[in-house]
């Protein structure tokens, strides 16, 4: 390739502006183990006081990016209260593994260590691998790849000293404007959600990791974020049974070890005013445990969220969550107060002695199944290398290649020798997509269009592009989380519509699939790839498709508009 043929061209007005093997085959699943006598569990249970037993219900928040004083304060709580577990949030992997070792030393009964890892360690930790978002995975047709991902995620978690992943998300995202689930879901088809969720959690559980399907009975058709208020699910029992609950029912039948409860008001299931599903005994015990026959761990969503604390403050939510049937009460605002109030409820017979014992033993059986009866500290040697292996990185690329979805291809045949414009929209510097595409199109120039480019800049660019025989366009969302609508200026959106009307233009969308609905005219594009997110791997995947080195096999996991519906893919 000659340097003179490949110049990065900035319009002046914009310039300024596998799998590492360490998995083991479980002889018995956690669910199978629950029905059997267990000497370790019985011994630990009988040695505990009632206060210590109640404390097993509580899991507290931990970070490794908030300094030593914060870390020490969490350690003090663990030491004094002897809690059941810890939920880690942001930080770094080596710091976290080291802190886990310290916290485990403070616990008389080993802690269950867990974290939200829907797309692996990278959901919370720096310097770790992020697997594709679940919407991206929803496009993949080879479920074996997702099973392998589950195994690798389990290895990564266990390598850091964790025993449970608070995932997968098994919500059916049938509301494009959902502010909290959205790209975290496998899509809007309940069968696909169930199928993908099951292979993912089976990969994790077969490799020795506890899992948790969330957010029961289904958080996909809401337009309120339960972190800030209580969402309302206003649908009938029959609708919820047949749609929202379907993936959870299938997961239960397939042996999921845990289910997390959503904070939602659901009048058709419990008409108590302002009562979140997390605090509802008819929903948790009546439906999940009795009707659906779920025997595993029932986990509350975070009890510090406004969706629950707004209407049940001062520890009332913790007690109601316990009485409702939650086995793990996650992130109480005040765990010491929660233990005190729950002990009082037990004394008063709010939950029978038989049920109380069974629920505490469920937690202890989980600890036994995860190997905590023979706890060993995490080895820090080579930790970073182990969780960032070449095999794991290769798997991310395989998943990305399998997700790319061709929505349109009206005989757009890109010629590597024609004069080509390679345009990235929504960015302020050249993209990896452009750097990869240019390797296959030697007679090309790169153009950068900022998401806020003014009308005059857009006009100038469109005029410049008229001299090119073919145009390759990347639409990029640079935000950390890909939302349903792009934050582009109206002028930039009009530019996309203009380019889509030209016969010689091929588009690749590195953004949430739902964003296509907010780009009128894109349905006229001759060639359209949807790549779901702006990861380096998906940018490489798209470049391979455009160069003819990869056949796109993905299928659209959500309906975007009347032109592009669930299941589409050439």
UniProtKB/TrEMBL annotation:
Its EC number is 3.2.1.52. Keywords: Glycosidase, Hydrolase. It catalyses: Hydrolysis of terminal non-reducing N-acetyl-D-hexosamine residues in N-acetyl-beta-D-hexosaminides. GO terms for biological process: carbohydrate metabolic process; peptidoglycan turnover. It is an enzyme of class 3 (hydrolase). It holds the Pfam family Glyco_hydro_3. The keyword RNA-binding does not apply. SUPFAM superfamilies: (Trans)glycosidases. InterPro entries: GH, Glyco_hydro_3_C_sf, Glyco_hydro_3_N, Glyco_hydro_3_N_sf, NagZ_Beta-hexosaminidase. Residues 52-364 form the Glycoside hydrolase family 3 N-terminal domain. Belongs to the glycosyl hydrolase 3 family. This is beta-N-acetylhexosaminidase. The lineage of its organism: Bacteria, Pseudomonadati, Bacteroidota, Sphingobacteriia, Sphingobacteriales.
């Amino acid at each position: 390739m000659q340097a003179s043929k490949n110049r990065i061209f900035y319009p002046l007005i914009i310039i300024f502006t596998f799998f590492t093997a360490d998995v083991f085959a479980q002889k018995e699943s956690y669910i199978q183990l629950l029905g059997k006598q267990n000497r370790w569990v019985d011994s630990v249970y009988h040695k505990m006081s009632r206060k210590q037993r109640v404390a097993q219900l509580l899991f507290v928040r931990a970070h490794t990016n908030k300094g030593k004083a914060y870390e020490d304060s969490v350690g003090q709580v663990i030491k004094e209260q002897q809690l059941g577990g810890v939920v880690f949030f942001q930080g770094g992997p080596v710091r976290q593994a080291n802190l886990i070792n310290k916290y485990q030393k403070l616990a008389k009964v080993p802690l269950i260590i867990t974290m939200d890892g829907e797309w692996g360690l990278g959901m919370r930790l720096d310097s770790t691998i992020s697997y594709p978002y679940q919407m991206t995975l929803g496009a993949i047709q080879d479920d074996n790849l997702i099973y392998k991902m589950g195994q690798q995620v389990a290895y990564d978690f266990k390598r850091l000293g964790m025993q449970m992943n608070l995932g997968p998300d098994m919500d059916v995202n049938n509301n494009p404007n959902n502010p909290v689930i959205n790209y975290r879901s496998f899509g809007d088809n309940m069968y696909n959600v169930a199928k993908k969720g099951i292979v993912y959690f089976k990969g994790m559980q077969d490799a020795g990791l506890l899992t948790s399907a969330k957010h029961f009975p289904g958080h996909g058709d809401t337009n309120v974020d339960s972190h800030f208020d209580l969402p309302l699910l206003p649908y009938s029992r029959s609708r919820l049974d047949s749609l929202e609950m379907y993936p959870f029912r299938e997961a239960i039948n397939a042996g999921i070890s845990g289910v997390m409860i959503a904070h939602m008001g659901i009048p058709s299931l419990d008409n108590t005013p302002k009562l979140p599903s997390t605090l509802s005994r008819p929903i948790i015990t009546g439906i999940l445990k009795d009707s659906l026959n779920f025997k595993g761990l029932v986990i509350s969503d975070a009890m510090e969220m406004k969706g629950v604390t707004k209407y049940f403050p001062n520890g009332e939510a913790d007690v109601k969550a316990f009485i409702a049937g939650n086995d793990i009460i996650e992130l109480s605002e005040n765990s010491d107060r929660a233990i005190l109030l729950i002990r009082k409820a037990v004394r008063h017979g709010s939950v029978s002695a038989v049920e109380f014992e069974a629920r505490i033993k469920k937690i202890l059986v989980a600890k036994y199944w995860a190997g905590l009866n023979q706890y060993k500290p995490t080895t820090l040697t080579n930790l970073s290398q182990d969780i960032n292996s070449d095999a794991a990185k290769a798997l991310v690329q395989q998943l990305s290649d399998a997700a790319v979805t061709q929505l349109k291809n009206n005989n757009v045949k890109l010629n590597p020798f024609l004069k080509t414009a390679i345009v990235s929209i929504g960015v302020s510097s050249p993209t990896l997509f452009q750097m990869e595409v240019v390797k296959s199109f030697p007679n090309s120039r790169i153009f950068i269009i900022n998401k806020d480019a003014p009308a005059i800049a857009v006009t100038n660019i469109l005029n410049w592009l008229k001299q090119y025989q073919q145009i390759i366009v990347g639409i990029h969302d640079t935000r950390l989380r890909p939302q349903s609508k792009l934050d582009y200026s109206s002028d930039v959106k009009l530019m996309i519509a203009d380019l889509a009307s030209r016969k010689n233009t091929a588009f690749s969308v590195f953004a949430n699939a739902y964003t296509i609905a907010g780009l009128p005219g894109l349905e006229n594009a001759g060639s359209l790839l949807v790549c779901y997110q702006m990861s380096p791997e998906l940018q490489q995947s798209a470049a391979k498709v455009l160069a003819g080195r990869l056949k796109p096999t993905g299928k659209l996991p959500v309906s975007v508009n009347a032109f592009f519906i669930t299941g589409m893919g050439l």
